[in-house]
Fold each of these.
Amino acid sequence: MGSAWAVVPAAGTGTRMGGTVNKQLIELSGRPVVEHSLRALLAVPVDGIVLVAPPGEESNFARALKDIISLNRIIIVHGGADRRESVGRGFMALPAGVGLVVVHDGARPLVRPVRVREAMKEARRWGASTLAVPVKDTVKLAGPDKLVQETLPRELLWQVQTPQVFTRELLLEAHRAAARDGYSGTDDASLVERLGHSVKLVPGDYTNIKITTPDDLLLAEKIMGLNPA
Ligand code: CTP
Ligand code: MG
C-alpha cells in the first residue's frame, strides 16, 4: 500500500495554555512537547513526518528540534487558520508513494507506539481508524441555556484521540470535500464520516492526553514518571 508517513499538526496558538512559549515547545522531561510526539511516531516506525508549525515559526521549530530533524526524514511546513487547514497543508507536502497517513497532534506527546501500530493495522483494513477510549463520565446534551435536553447512552460513547490513520486517497477526498463545503470539524475522522465512510475505533490509553491547559503539563510529567521511556 506504499509507505506510511505522519502529518503532525502543531500550528495552533495554544490559547488555553497561555504563556509566552508556544505550548509545543514547552519542555516536558527536558524535551519539547512536540519532540516526544515525533519520537513516538519514529519508533512505530513511520517512513517520514511532515511537521506543521505556526506560520513564521518554522525556523524556531527547526532550531528547537534540530537533533531529531538532522537524523530523520522530517519536513517542516507552516499551518493555517484552523486544524483542518493545517492538516491539509501538511498533506500537500507528502512525497509521492505514500499510501497510509498517520495524523497525530503535536500536543499528544504520550502516545504509545504499540497503539499507533494497532491504529495503522485497522486503517489498512477499513480505510480509516482513530484511537479512542470509552467515556467515563455520564454525558448530557444541553442547549445554550445550559438546560439538559438529553442524557446520552454512555455505553456507546467514545472520546477520540489521535493518531487517526487513513489511506491517502480517502484523506484527500475527505479534505477536498470539507474545504469545498466550508466544513472545519475538530478532527479528521469527522471529515471522513461526512463522506459516509466507516471509521474504525481502536481502543487506546487514557494516558494519551492532549496538552491543552497548564495542569496537563503536570499530569504528563507524572504519567511519564510512571512509564519511563
Ligand atoms: N492545530 C494546528 N493548526 C491550527 C489549530 C490547531 O495545527 N490552526 C493543532 C495544534 O497545534 C494541536 C492540535 O491541532 O497540536 C490540537 O489542537 P489544540 O489542542 O486545540 O491546540 P491549540 O489550537 O494550539 O490550542 P488552543 O485551542 O487552546 O488555542
Ligand atoms: Mg485549538
Amino acid sequence: MTMEIGVVFTNMRGKPMQEPHILTAENVLKHHATIAGQGLSGAEAAQRLDTHGPNELVEKGRKSAWRILLAQVKEVMILILLAAVFISAALQEYIDAIVIFIIVVLNTLLGFWQEFKAENAMAALKKMTVPNVRVLRDGSEQQISAKDLVPGDILLIESGNVVPADARLIEAVNLKVQEAALTGESESVDKHSHRLEGDDYALADRKNMIYMGTVVTYGRGYAVVTNTGMHTELGKIATLLHGVEDEKTPLQRRLARLGRSLAMAAVVLIFVVAGLMYMQGAGWKMMFMTAISMAVAAIPEGLPAVVTIALALGAQQMLKKNALIRQLAAVETLGSVTVICSDKTGTLTQNKMSVTQVVLPDRRVTFDPAVVGHTQDIDLSLLLLTGMLCNDAVINDGNGHDILGDPTEGALVIAARQAGLVQTDLNTLLPRVRELPFDSERKRMSTVHAMPVSFDKASAYPVSALSEQDGHTDHILLTKGAADGLIDGCGRILINGKIELLDDKQKNAILAENTAMAENGIRVLGLAYRFVDEDELDRPKRYEQNLVYLGLAGMIDPVRPEAVEAVRLCKQAGIRPVMITGDHPLTAVAIARQLGLTDTDTFLTGQDLEKMTEEELAARIPEISVFARVSPSHKMVIIDVLQEHHEIVSMTGDGVNDAPALKSADIGVAMGITGTDVSKEASDMILLDDNFATIVAAVKEGRRIYDNIRKFVRYILTGNTGEIVVMLTGPLLGMPLPLLPIQILWINLVTDGIPAIALGYEEPEQKIMDRPPLDPKEGIFARGLGWQIIMMGVIVGLISVGAGYGFWNNGTGSPAWQTMVFTMLTFCQMAYALCVRKQHQSLFSYSWFSNPMLLAAVGVTLILQMIIIYVPFFNLVFRTFPLRWEELAVCTAGAVAIILITEIKKLFLRKNQNFVTV
Ligand code: ADP
Ligand code: MG
C-alpha cells in the first residue's frame, strides 16, 4: 500500500499540480500521496518536513544581533562621544581619547547586551504562541505543533480554529470560514468539499479550499494540506503580517518623550556651564569636553533599554505563573486594572462536571458516581441516550473516566455510561447525519441521527418503542441546552413512556424545578427529542421546534479553592471581580456567593441588558457583579460602559465570538486550555491554566514591575541631577571644573547601567496588593517623584561639592579635592541604590542579599572606585589622587548621610501609613 503511494508521489512530483480546487478531493489526496481516513505515516511526514521546511512565515521584522548593534552605534550620544574621541586625539590628548573610546565601547556593549536580552525574551514569548493542530497520522488523530504540518497531512478543523496552512477540503459539516485576512471580506463564507467546474476562480470563490490565517467560525471538517509556510497564499503577502506586536508601550513612549525634553534641557545647561567656565577663563578645549560630558550626564540614554528589559523580564516572570503575555504593553496595563471580568465555568470553577441528578417529568433520579446500574425505563434511558449522542465529547477508553471535549458534555456521557449505555455502539446504531452545533447565543445543540433498520440491540430499545408510537422511523433529532430557552421549543412531553401534550402548568413546574436547582448552584441542561422526516433534514432553522420534552440533567462544578483567595485579594487591592456567564442567573449567583464575589442576590441577564436604555446601562452596569445568560455580544456592552466610567477592564473569553470583546478590553484574556485559536490571537494575555487566580497573580506582577520602573527612574535621574548640581555649583563657589569629563563619563557608565537593571529584579513591595490600582493616566513622575528626584539630586550634589570645597578651601593644599568630589558622588549613589529598593521599608528591615545582582553591582562599583583612586596607572588616566583614610571616612560619612535622610523619609511615610506614595 505505502509503496504504491510512494510511486504515485514520485510520478507526480515532477509535474506541476493543477490548482487543487478544480480537482476532485480524491485526486488531490492522490497527488499528495495520502489517504483520507489514515493520513501520512510519521516517517513520511518527517521526510516531507525536511523537504518543505517548517510551516511558518518567515518574519521580516526580527532584529538580528547586527541590527541591534548598529542601532546602538547610531545613537546620537555615541556619535557625540566619538567626536570627542577624535578631537581629543587631534589635540594630542591621547589618554583622554583612549579612555573615552573605551567608555564608548563599554557603553555600546552594555546597551547591546540589554537590548539583546530584551529581544530574546520577546522571541521566547512569541515561540510559545504557536498553536497546536489536530491531524491524522498513522491512522489516528494526533496533536502536533502547527509548525510541523506538511503537504499531504489530513487536518481536522473545527469552529474556533485559525486555519494553519492552505488545504483542500475533503469533508465539510456546516463549515463557515471568515477570510478577512486574505480577502478583506468580514462575512463568513460557506465551504464545501466538492470539485469546482472550470478554472477561473478568485481566492474568495474557491469554496472547497481553506487558507492559512483565516478563521473557522462554524462547523467542522477534514482537509488535506496543499501548501505550507511561505508557499501559502498568506505567505505570498506576508509583508502584511505581524505576530506578537513589538509596538512601543505607552510607558516607553512617555520615556522617549522625557529623553527628548531632557536633551533640550541639556543644551541649555551646556551653554550655562560654558558661560561659567568662560568667565573663569577656561580654554575652549576644556569647555568643549565639559559640554560633551554634561550632555552625557544629563540625558538618561540607558533608560529606554532598561525599561524594555524590565517589561520583558516581567513577562517572563508572568509566564512562570502561567500567564503568557502577547503584548508587552499588557505588562504595564495589568498594574492599572480596576475591574476583572471573568467567565465562570472553568475559570472560577474547576470545570470538573458531574451529573448529580436527573429530573424526569414524574420523578427525580439521583446519581451516585459509585453506583453503576443498567436502566430499563424508557424515559430515563431516552434522556440519557440524548445526552450521550447529542454530544461531541468522547470517552477515552484507554483510562477509565478520561474524556476528551467539553466537560459539560463529558459529564453527560459519563452519566449515560453509568446507566449502561455504550457510546460506540450507539454511534454505529444511530449514526449522526446532521447537526446544529452549540453556540453561546442559542445556548443549545441539536443532532439528527438516522434510525436503525433493525432494533436487535437492547440499547436502542427506547428509540424503537417510541418510533412505533410516533409513527415515524426515518430520523431522530436530539436536543440539549439551557432549559429556559429549550422549553419554548417543546410542544409535547414524555411521561412514563407516553407522549402527552405539554400544558402551561407543566411548563411552569419545569421552570420552577429549573430555578430551584439553579439556586443551589447546579448547572442545568434540558433535553428533548423528536422524529423528523427526510424533507425536514435540510431545514435546520426548524429543528428546535415542536420538540418532545424529556427532562432536566443537573450537574455540579465545584469552585476552584484558589479562586476564593484570589477574589479576596482582588477586593483588598481595590479591583472589582465580575462574573460573566452564559449559565442560569441563579446558578451564577450561588457560585458567586460561594466565591465571596458578591453578598447580594443582584444580577443582570443578557436580556435585561438588551432592554435597558443607555442611561440605565450606565447606571446599573458599574455596580453589578454577576452577569448571567450573557452572549459574547453583551460583553462588548459591559466593556463599553465600564470604560466610559474610566475603569481599566480585563475580560476573559474563549470562543470565536469573544474575539471582539477581547480586543476592546484593556486586557483581553484568553484561555490556554479550552480557548479557541481565534480568542488566543485576539488576546493580550493567555492563561495557560485557565485559572482566575492567574489573572490576579499577573496583576500583582504588573504592579511590581511598574514600581520597579519608578525605582530605577528615580535612581538614574537622581544621580544625573547630582552630577549636574556639582557641575553648576562648583564654578559658582570658585572651584574650577569639579569633575573632569572622564570622571563624569565614568560615573555615568557605572551608575546608569547595571544597578538600574538590578532594580528591575526587585521583589514586590510588602503591601503591593493593599493599595488601589495605579492611575493609568498618571505620568511617571506622579505622586511627588519628580520633586523627590530633584531634592535628593540636589542633596547628593551639594554633599559632593561641599566635600571637595572643604579641601580646596582650607589651605591644606591637597590636590585631591576633585577626587573627593568624584568619590563622594559615587559613594552617595551606591548608598542610594540600596535605599531605593523599597519604598517604605527601612534599609535595615530587608535582606541585602535578596537582590544579589544589585549588591554585586554596588560592590563592584566600590571596588573599581578604590582601584581608580589607589592604583597609580589609573591615577594617571582619571587624574585622581590617593585619598588619605580621613578623606575616605568623610566620603563614607556622606553615604551614611544619604542613608539617614532616606530612612527619615521612609519613617515619615510609614507613620502616615501612606502606602500609595512612593
Ligand atoms: P458558561 O461557560 O459561562 O458557563 P456557556 O455559554 O458554556 O456558559 O453555557 C450557557 C448555557 O448553555 C449553559 O447554562 C447550558 O445550559 C448550555 N450549554 C452549555 N454547554 C452546552 C452544550 N455543550 N450543549 C448544549 N447546551 C450547553
Ligand atoms: Mg462554557
Amino acid sequence: MYRVFSGVKPSGDFHLGNYVGAFRQWVADQREHDAIYCVVDLHALTEEIDPAYLREKTYEAAVNLLSVGLDPEICTIFAQSHVPEHPRLTWLLECTATMGELRRMTQFKAKGYGQETVRVGLFTYPVLMAADILLYEADRVPVGDDQRQHLELARELAQRFNSRYGQTFTVPQAAVPTVGARVMDLQHPERKMSKSVDSPLGTIYVADEPAEIERKVKKAVTDTDGEMRYAPEEKQGLANLLELMAVATGETPDEVAARYTRYGDLKQELAAALVELLRPMRERRAELVKDPATVHQVLRAGAARAHEIAAATYERAAAAVGLLGLGC
Ligand code: AMP
Ligand code: TRP
C-alpha cells in the first residue's frame, strides 16, 4: 500500500487555498492509501509567533483537519513536536544539504534573503520539511504548487543520502492538483491566497459565514475588458474565479467560462457554490469545538503511531551515517 504524507503549518486560519490546493486531496487519499498528516508546529517557529497563539492554532489545526473530513479511524493525524525524531533527522539531513541549495529556495528568497536578522530556522526550514517526509517513507506528498521546490529538495536529499550511505530512504513524489494548485488572493490576484498576509477581503477562510463568502466573492478583483475566457496569464483575477468554480463543479475552467457571459453571474453562482462546498466543514467544526477531549485523544493516538514509524527510520539513518547505537 502506498504511503501518503503531508503537513500544514498552524500559523493562522485555514483558507480556501489550503482546502483546494491540499486538504481536498488529503481527504480523498485517506480511503485508498496509508495516509499520515502532520500539524507542523516546529515550522511555525521560523517566524515570529506568540506562544499562546501557536498553542491555540495547533489545536485548531487538528480541529480543522477533522472538520474537512479526515477520519482518524483510517488515517493518522499528529503534531510534529510530539515526535522527537523530526529534529533528530533534520540534523542528519542538514549535514547532507548544502548552503548553495538552500539559498536557491524561492520561499526563503522571498521571505528572508539578505536580512541579517532572519532566523536560521527559516533558512533550514526545507530540511525540516524533508525530514518530515523521509521519516515516514512517504511515496506521495500532496501539496499545493508553492511546495514543489521543497519537494524537489527532499527527493534530492533522499537520493544523496542513499548513494552516500546505502539505501535508507524512499524517494517521494509530489502530487500537485491539476486545477486549483494555486488559489490566488481575491483582491491581489497576482499573489497566492495566504494566511501570513493580512488581506481581509482577499482571503476566504474555511470558517467564514455564508454572508462573508458572498461579500468577498462579489468584491473580487477581475478586469475591465469584460471578456469571459480562461487566460491565467492575462486575466489572473477572472482565471482564479473560473478555477474555483471548476473545483466546485468538477468541470474544466474553459467549460465554466463557456457557460457564462457576465462576470456578475459567475460571481453570484460561485459564491453559492463555495458556501455549499464549505458548509459541511463549518458544521463539523461547530460540533468538534465543543469536544476537546476527542481532539486531544486523536493527537495522542496519532503521535503514538507516527512515533513508531519515525523511530525505526531514524535508527536506520543514524546507523547508516555511523552513529554508535545504544545497543553498541
Ligand atoms: P500552509 O498553510 O502554508 O502550511 O500550506 C498547507 C498546504 O496548503 C500546502 O500543501 C500548500 O501548498 C497549500 N496551499 C497553501 N496556500 C495555497 C494556495 N493559495 N493555493 C493552493 N494551495 C495552497
Ligand atoms: N512547508 C509546508 C507549507 O508551508 C508545510 C509542510 C511542512 C509540509 N512539512 C511538510 C508539507 C511535509 C508536506 C510535507 O505548506
